[in-house]
Amino acid sequence: MKYIIGLLAMLLPILSGAQSPPVKALTIGDTVPDITITNVYNYPASTIHLSDLKGKLVILDFMSTGCVPCIRVLPKLDSLQMQYSSHLQVILVSAEKPERIQSFLQKHRYLHIPFVAGDTVLCKSFPHEYISHIAWMDGGGIVRAITHSEYINAKNITTLLQGQTVNWPIKRDVTFFDFKQPLLTLNESNIPESALPSHSFYTAFVNYMPGVQNYNDIIVDSINHIVHINMINRSIIELYLLLYQRSHFPMSQVLLHVKDRDRLVYNPAKGYYEDWVEKNLYCLDAILPANIPPLAQREKLISDCNFYLGLQGEMEKRNVDCLVLRNKESFAKNMKAKGGEGLRIGMIAYLLNNKVGAIPVLIEHLP
Question: Considering the entire predicted model, what is its pTM?
Answer without folding.
Answer: 0.79
